[in-house]
Design a protein that fits this description.
alpha/beta, seven-stranded parallel sheet, six-stranded parallel sheet, 16 helices, 13 strands, 16% strand, globular
Length: 411
């Protein structure tokens, strides 16, 4: 529903989809609150299967808000050509609506879609916010997706585009303090024109630990109430490898702990299965679940330990794991490799919140297990940590402050 009161008109453009779990948690959750003050158009690239299953839900979520959703079908093949075609579709759709409403501000989520954002900024003389989300081109290269020589000029193109986005944006946003420090150190943006907003959590969706929910979820998954459950929530493949999950499981078995692995993911089931089989893990101890965003908390509550896993790389500086706040919100301590974005800072800040491991030393897994399982972190305290660090409303307040500052600036 379009509000009759004149508000600043904002185009929010993203290269993932509003129907994706991340789109729902890290875009829609914020914009639902911000739409009280601004009028939004949202362009996202939607994957077919997820779009078909979630489009009615998303439409209902926004039907009474000042949000207009402009979905575009995501094209994966053929490589490169499909991406160029997607950019064309994004530009065409933004121009179609922007020529009527004339955008006041472009909010660009990731450098992946930055070429459209810069064109639109110039077309409508609009302000621009570069919400970098991490070092996108480096993530692609380091994941192995851009390993071929054919991708070398593409990598350089997007790194150059990234630099332009920093230069011509009115404000930039990093997910982590580590990323912020890198931006300022490299003189990509003045310190006073960069803000840090970690990935936040909607605590109305990620509910507190409840013993009856734990029992119900474990019964559904055929997991004994006394088993130790290692939970991983999110994508697998590329920068998200299965090594930490498997190695922690194997360490637990050597310690004679009855352990199950619970993977919550929309990643292709056969791929996950092949990775598990490759690592010689018995499928009797593995549960793979693909569920709606609103149901994730049930299965987190069923677990004992939450895993964060990123491949070691430069781009890890910009990583703010959404799952960290979600794990804590549901009472799960976390295990993660050292030097991952701001994770070290948060785990060291709060007692019994988790453990950092050195993946080059097998003994590190034993130490992590012993520490996490022996300390018996208090679930209410973990939720308090999540609220302290990752409260959605705090993130919304920072976004509003940035929007108002940029919209009212003379620059």
């Amino acid at each position: 529903m379009r509000n009759m009161i004149k508000k600043p008109k904002i185009l929010f453009i993203m290269y993932d989809g509003l129907t994706d779990p991340l789109g729902q948690s890290q875009v829609l959750s914020y914009i639902k609150h911000l739409s009280k003050y601004y009028s939004f158009d949202i362009i996202g690239y939607e994957k077919k299967d997820v779009y078909e299953s979630q489009k009615i839900h998303i439409s209902k979520e926004i039907e009474k808000l000042d949000i207009r959703w402009l979905p575009i079908k995501y094209h994966k093949k053929p490589p490169i050509i499909s991406t160029i075609y997607d950019f064309y579709l994004g530009w065409k759709k933004a121009k179609q609506y922007g020529d009527i409403d004339n955008y006041d501000l472009i909010h660009c989520r990731s450098s992946a879609i930055g070429n459209i954002a810069l064109l639109l900024k110039n077309r409508y003389k609009a302000k621009l916010i570069f919400d970098m989300r991490g070092w996108w081109a480096d993530e692609k290269k380091e994941s192995g997706l851009w390993n071929s020589k054919i991708y070398s000029p593409i990598y350089l193109y997007f790194k150059n585009l990234e630099a332009k986005l920093f230069k011509y944006s009115d404000h930039s946003i990093s997910l982590t303090k580590a990323g912020y420090d890198e931006i300022v150190r490299k003189n990509l943006k003045p310190a006073n024109e960069v803000s840090v907003i970690p990935t936040c959590v909607d605590f109305n969706i990620f509910k507190p630990f409840n013993l009856s929910v734990k029992k119900s979820a474990r019964e559904e998954l055929n997991i004994d109430i006394n088993d130790t459950v290692i939970v991983y929530s999110g994508s697998l493949g590329g920068n998200y490898n299965i090594d930490i999950i498997v190695n922690l499981y194997k360490a637990s078995k050597k310690l004679n702990i009855n352990t199950k692995i619970l993977i919550l993911s929309h990643t292709d089931y056969d791929y996950i299965l092949s990775e598990i089989n490759k690592n010689e893990v018995t499928m009797e101890d593995v549960r793979i679940k693909s569920c709606n965003y609103s149901d994730v908390h049930r299965y987190l509550i069923a677990g004992d330990i939450g895993i964060i896993n990123y491949k070691k790389s430069f781009s890890i500086l910009g990583r703010s794991p959404t799952k960290m706040g979600e794990y804590w919100a549901c009472g799960l301590p976390v295990i993660c490799e050292k030097n991952t974005g701001d994770v070290d800072y948060f785990i060291n800040k709060y007692n019994n919140s988790g453990h950092l491991i050195d993946i080059t030393h097998n003994e590190s897994y034993n130490t992590a297990l012993n520490k996490v399982l022996s300390t018996k972190a208090i679930k209410d305290e973990l939720r308090e940590h999540a609220i302290d660090c990752f409260d959605l409303l705090k993130g919304v307040a920072i976004y509003k402050k940035i929007y108002d500052q940029v919209l009212n600036s003379k620059k």
